[in-house]
């Protein structure tokens, strides 16, 4: 089902001529915009906070924080002071040194960000964790990285197996009535009395920044290490892709446990001195629309699952809020179905700009820009300075419209620098020392737009036809009864594989044989006969990661009675 292209937006966007910029751009030009251009000595926390606090942005709001109990704001100057206090506290109550790993395992709150940037000021490598992780997931990550400290809350403390982690010397606890001992430090006891002056640890460009663990299809989660230098690309894409300027109020809905919540939750907006909204607590459509209205959000970055949930909450709800400040809307994390883009045009009168990148890439790679036509269903074009291609299994570039491996020419600023403790895993990402191979399959059309097809191992072969599960899922979602869909290939003696769909229904629909047939007909008509699922199974909910990706490998494991592998990133 083709959706019409959506023309470029007229206005003051920062990447006004994609072709011209892409032809002439060199990343090293951007280094000039940083305070460290001459010295080469840098620190993310300085660039993101102190630099603005020491400028005429001093009293500009850096952070609006809101949850059920708190509603607070902090200027860049206040952030500088609070992060200095946090750095002093961490330093005084531990033996942490530059390059040591410290994990953060707590719900969103201003303290999380004070402590995170305080740790960065000390030159520590920060490992953010999802709040819903259980003991096994925490153990794997802290053990693999020999973490020396963790920041957590009394509620979450029982899930930190500190007795089994010999390197873990200090547990910083953020809460009330805390009993300290030789390991446990009460953060609130010292935070406000610590000095608000701190000597930042100056680092080299290649020194560590964050360590994000991410799950592959097999084995234990792997630790993706990013370097300080990632800031070059995070800064520039904040301008080109997020289109952030001085007046913006920016809201990224991602949790800091996910790379989106660090790179684009705080680093990118603060590197550009932009006011950032952080909303704590649980998702609710009302709460989210209200946040846009209350803060006057102008740039909003979220994910397809969230947009689909908002879609499910109905268009009438949107009308109860004043969302007129919204100027630019973006999405990341999984395929943005054309249906969702069309809905965005209807209800927000805004284009939703898809962006493709990965934990390993550290920043945006392939995106839609305000100055460019959007082809709904496409991820857009490479960020200027990035070379993307579709290559075959030998690393040879394929012509337009052929499906293959989505690859990026090695050596962009925010590229991961290590898989922690696992050099051979790191090497396995690269082909011929030239291409980083993403593990996604895609094709590029004649106009240079990239189209996502699936994870390489998710591609379905049925009766000799290659079918991308995403296309089938997108078509399924256009059926009025379907709220969520996950599609896998099921081994079949005749056809190689047949297509099986797992479907969660919208309210008001009940599973039935008629409905199965109706949905099958719908896909046959909308997409292709060979792409229609032979089997449809109804589920109340589909297995998803915390960042909203449908876990097809779990669906497949259910189907084939196989072990499901590492589930630490799965939603409850
Ligand atoms: C930032 C982030 C990376 C994987 C990636 C791909 C999927 C991300 C997407 C997308 C289709 C998009 N993905 N963005 N698929 N369209 N715009 O998501 O990092 O959690 O490491 O996931 O997510 O499969 O390979 P991460």
TrEMBL record:
<protein>
    <recommendedName>
        <fullName>acetate--CoA ligase</fullName>
        <ecNumber>6.2.1.1</ecNumber>
    </recommendedName>
</protein>
<dbReference type="InterPro" id="IPR045851">
    <property type="entry name" value="AMP-bd_C_sf"/>
</dbReference>
<dbReference type="Pfam" id="PF00501">
    <property type="entry name" value="AMP-binding"/>
</dbReference>
<keyword id="KW-0067">ATP-binding</keyword>
<dbReference type="InterPro" id="IPR020845">
    <property type="entry name" value="AMP-binding_CS"/>
</dbReference>
<keyword id="KW-0007">Acetylation</keyword>
<feature type="domain" description="AMP-dependent synthetase/ligase">
    <location>
        <begin position="55"/>
        <end position="419"/>
    </location>
</feature>
<keyword id="KW-0436">Ligase</keyword>
<dbReference type="InterPro" id="IPR042099">
    <property type="entry name" value="ANL_N_sf"/>
</dbReference>
<feature type="domain" description="AMP-binding enzyme C-terminal">
    <location>
        <begin position="471"/>
        <end position="549"/>
    </location>
</feature>
<keyword id="KW-0547">Nucleotide-binding</keyword>
<dbReference type="InterPro" id="IPR000873">
    <property type="entry name" value="AMP-dep_synth/lig_dom"/>
</dbReference>
<dbReference type="GO" id="GO:0003987">
    <property type="term" value="F:acetate-CoA ligase activity"/>
</dbReference>
<dbReference type="Pfam" id="PF13193">
    <property type="entry name" value="AMP-binding_C"/>
</dbReference>
<dbReference type="InterPro" id="IPR025110">
    <property type="entry name" value="AMP-bd_C"/>
</dbReference>
């Amino acid at each position: 089902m083709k959706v019409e292209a959506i023309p470029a937006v007229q206005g003051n966007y920062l990447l006004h001529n994609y072709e011209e910029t892409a032809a002439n751009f060199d990343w090293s030009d951007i280094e000039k915009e940083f305070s460290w251009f001459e010295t080469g000595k840098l620190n993310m926390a300085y660039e993101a906070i102190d630099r603005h606090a020491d400028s005429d942005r001093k009293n500009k709001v850096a952070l609006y924080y809101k949850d059920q109990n708190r509603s607070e704001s902090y200027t860049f100057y206040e952030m500088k002071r609070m992060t200095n206090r946090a750095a002093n506290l961490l330093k005084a109550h531990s033996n942490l040194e530059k390059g040591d790993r410290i994990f953060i395992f707590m719900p969103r709150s201003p303290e999380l960000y004070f402590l995170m940037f305080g740790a960065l000021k000390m030159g520590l490598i920060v490992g953010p964790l999802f709040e819903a992780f259980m003991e096994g997931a925490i153990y794997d990550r802290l053990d693999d990285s020999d973490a020396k400290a963790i920041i957590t809350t009394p509620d979450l403390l029982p899930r930190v197996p500190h007795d089994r982690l010999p390197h873990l010397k200090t547990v910083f606890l953020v809460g009330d009535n805390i009993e300290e001992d030789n390991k446990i430090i009460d953060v609130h006891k010292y935070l406000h009395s610590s000095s608000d002056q701190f000597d930042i640890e100056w680092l080299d460009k290649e020194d560590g920044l964050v360590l994000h663990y991410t799950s592959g299809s097999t084995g234990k989660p792997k630790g993706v290490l990013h370097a300080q230098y990632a800031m070059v690309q995070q800064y520039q894409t904040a301008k080109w892709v997020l289109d952030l300027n001085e007046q913006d109020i920016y809201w990224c809905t991602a949790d800091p446990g996910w790379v989106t919540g660090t790179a684009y939750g705080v680093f990118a907006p603060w590197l550009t001195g932009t006011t950032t909204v952080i909303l704590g607590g649980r998702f609710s459509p009302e709460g989210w629309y209200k946040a846009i209205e209350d803060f006057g959000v102008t740039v909003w970055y979220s994910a397809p699952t969230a947009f689909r949930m908002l879609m499910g909450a109905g268009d009438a709800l949107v009308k109860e809020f004043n969302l007129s400040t919204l100027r630019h809307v973006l999405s990341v994390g999984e395929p943005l179905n054309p249906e969702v883009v069309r809905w965005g045009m209807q209800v927000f009168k805004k284009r939703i700009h898809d962006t493709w990148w990965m934990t390993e890439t550290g920043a945006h790679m392939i995106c839609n820009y305000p100055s460019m036509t959007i082809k709904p269903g496409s991820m857009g074009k490479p960020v200027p300075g990035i070379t993307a291609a579709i290559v075959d299994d030998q690393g040879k570039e394929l012509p337009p419209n052929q499906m293959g491996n989505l690859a990026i020419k090695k050596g962009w600023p925010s590229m991961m620098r290590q898989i922690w403790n696992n050099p051979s895993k790191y090497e396995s990402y690269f082909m011929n020392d030239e291409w980083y191979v993403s593990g996604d399959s895609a094709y590029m059309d004649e106009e240079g737009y990239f189209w996502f097809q699936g994870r390489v191992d998710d591609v379905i072969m049925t009766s000799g036809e290659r079918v991308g599960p995403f296309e089938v899922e997108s078509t399924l979602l256009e059926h009025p009864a379907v709220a969520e869909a996950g599609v896998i290939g099921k081994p079949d003696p005749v056809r190689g594989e047949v297509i099986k769909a797992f479907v969660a229904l919208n309210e008001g629909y009940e599973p039935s044989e008629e409905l199965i047939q109706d949905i099958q007909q719908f896909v046959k008509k909308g997409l292709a006969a060979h792409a229609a699922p032979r089997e449809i199974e109804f589920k109340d909910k589909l297995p998803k990661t915390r960042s909203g990706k449908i876990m097809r490998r779990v669906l497949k494991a259910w189907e084939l009675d196989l072990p499901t592998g590492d589930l630490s990133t799965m939603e409850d």
